[in-house]
Design a protein that fits this description.
Shape of chain A: globular
CATH architecture of the largest domain in chain A: 3-Layer(aba) Sandwich
Distance between the termini of chain A: 32 Å
Order of helices and strands of chain A: EHEEEHEEHEHEHHEHH
Largest interface: A-B, 46 and 46 residues
Largest sheet of chain A: 5 strands, parallel
Helix content of chain A: 40-55%
Number of strands of chain A: 9
Strand order of the largest sheet of chain A: 2-7-1-8-9
Radius of gyration of chain A: 19 Å
Oligomer: homodimer
Chain lengths: 207, 207
């Protein structure tokens, strides 16, 4: 079976990444979401192994020491990280594993996994980003201004991604992500087994 | 308008390249075929500027001297070549220009146009290639054996292509080619204008 791809998805806050990922997961069983490890307590309804791997601080630090996390960070006194074993197992099972992560983390992933595919999801324009952030109606003007300012900074790093996917229409964006990942699988470096088989099958004709 | 892509298509003799290209052209007006220049005489029904640019030997050699051909070769005493001006004009008009060419020529194109996209079209197996070549019923056993032997040699170069597209089902193969080219357009190096616009649009929010 072909190995899956580690799909890193980034995008400005308000770009609609979460919605795109949710729809992608519901439409195709070729994708799964990376499950993070954390030391924070489960909230009501959260399931261990599905929402997060909930572990003790001791276990988390042991996992770091063993090189068991692809990346990790601390946030409000708790650890969050991406378990290597889970990601690698799913990829070996042929699943494309989605990792939603910000730019700096994405660049670190690319160094560790050069065969990963980095997607940056963006609204068509800055104005549209502002419109979406305001449309949520859940954040103060100041928080929105902060997100837009951050987007301006983040836009400097877009060129480092493998692909830019515009999220104008949700369905089209999900289709675009899927076809981009299917295309990435057609690169020869991901088709080594197929090429080897093809060569072997043609060898008998050589004269 | 976004520039088109120079799409180089290669594949074993018998892989079905010609059929794939014909269907691609009939299904999408985003593609056009590169028209070759030749010194051979037009056959009945062939149209100058559509099937070929028919020119004199003198004109052909002048075009070579002026650097007006991307590549050229001699075959049975006649020149054949790919006019640079035609290809560049169509790409600037936003068309994806298809160039059907063998492996060595494809590698030369990649050196001259690093932004071209090289597709290798192959049947799923060597056996299937043999079946297709025999199924044509137009060639002697010896010619078929020669083509299969050549395919075995050519299979060594497949890894140099950007993408490998398996032609098992014609419709799927055409779809795969189209989505591969659409994906290639999502690379940041082809989205410089979009990125520039997006950055400018976000700059006003920076604080």
């Amino acid at each position: 079976m072909d190995k899956g791809i580690l799909v890193v998805i980034s995008g400005f806050s308000g770009a609609g990444k979460g919605t795109v990922i949710k729809k992608l997961l519901s439409e195709s069983d070729e994708y799964c979401l990376s499950v993070s490890m954390t030391t924070r307590n489960p909230r009501p309804g959260e399931v261990d192994g599905k929402d997060y791997f909930f572990v003790t601080r001791e276990k988390f630090e042991q996992t770091i020491a063993e090189g068991g996390l692809i990346e990790h960070a601390q946030f409000v006194g708790n650890y969050y990280g991406t378990p290597r074993a889970y990601v690698e197992q799913k990829i070996n099972e042929g699943k494309n594993v989605i990792l939603e992560i910000e730019i700096q983390g994405a660049m670190n992933i690319k160094k560790l996994y050069p065969e990963s595919v980095l997607l940056f999801i963006t609204p068509p324009t800055g104005e549209e980003l502002e419109r979406r952030l305001k449309g949520r109606g859940t954040e103060t003007e100041d928080v929105i201004a902060g997100r837009l300012s951050r987007a301006s900074e983040e836009s400097e790093g877009i060129g480092e991604y493998d692909y830019i996917v515009v999220n104008d229409d949700l369905d089209k964006c999900v289709t675009d992500v899927m076809e981009t990942i299917r295309s990435a699988k057609r690169k020869p470096e991901r088709q080594m087994d197929f090429i080897e088989e093809l060569r072997k099958g043609l060898e008998i004709y050589h004269r």
